[in-house]
Each structure stands twice: as C-alpha cells, then as structure tokens.
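Handout, page 2. Input:
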Amino acid sequence: SPSNLWKFPLDADDTTDVTLGLTLENGMRFDDLQLVGDTYYWTDNNHTTAGVVSGASLYKRAKTDNASTPLVTGLGLAYNLQVTPTKLVFFELRSTGAALHVYRAPLAGAAVGALEDVATAGAGSYLVKQGDYVYWTSKLAKPNGKLQRLNTPTTTPRQKTSPPAWICRQGWRAMKTTCTSGRPARCSGRRW
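Output:
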C-alpha cells in the first residue's frame, strides 16, 4: 500500500482541514521528516518484524517531484536526521550492541563507506539543530553527562589552500616572501 503524507493548517480544529500532501512509494516510512524549502527529507527505517530494523535509508523529494531520491542507503538503525544547508547529520546504530555514532554526509548524499563518523554518542542521546550548530546529549560522560556540538555553517565553507612556497616567521607574524627561487635572506612581502 502507498505511504501518504497528510497536511493540515496549524490552527485546524477538526479533521475537515486534513488533506493529502503526497503519496509516496509503497511501504515508505517517515522517520525524522523535515521540510526544507520545497524539499522533504526523511529517514526510512525498514522493519522485517515489529521493532526489528533491517536497514535504513535517507531520502529526499521535492514537492513537485513524482519520485523519491535515495541519498544514503544501507544504514543500520538511523534517526534524528538534521538537514543543514550543506550537510545531513544523523545518528546511526550499525549493529545490535554497537555504539551509537553521529554521522555527517553531503546534502547530495553519499555511499555508506564515505560517511564522516563525527563522534560516538550514548544510548538515549538526542540530536537537534539550532543556527550553525547541531547539538546532541552524551550520557557516556560521568558523573553528569554533557552536551556536545558540531559546527554546520549556513554557507559553504571556504576551501583551505596550501601555504605559499616560502613562509618565514618574524616574531608571531607569518609573511609571504616575494622571492621566486632560493631561500630569502630576510622576511619580506605581505602578511599571509
């Protein structure tokens, strides 16, 4: 049977305002559903039997699209998906008894092997996004636990570049030399 996404105004006071928003592929589950701009993002945890996850995937679908696009497939139990302007951040439990981890993927998606393992989180942790940060609780710390955060800039980060060929130090200042060959006798040029 198809999966339906229903919509209603926040000030609705009965079911007459509920309408069908989207009809998705058969058996699609919506965990961590988010609407970012005109695109829906969600986690689909597939269950073989009640309470047993056989594998999860992250999907997206624009309001005007006719099909969902898989972003990451082949996950274990995944939840608390947070969508930033450049990344997908979520929890994943790869196998029963394994540690819970915070993973980050490009917004366009990635293969499971290419996901960035950001940190280990404790059982019962929760992930939220606010501003340029994603926060999660860690119940592994003693005695009181802690709150951790990951910077997720709202703009695409600038690429780091290699330092210039000749760098010299004068006190605390790094200077770029104007020399093109050989080692300069003294620092000259402009601040790097």
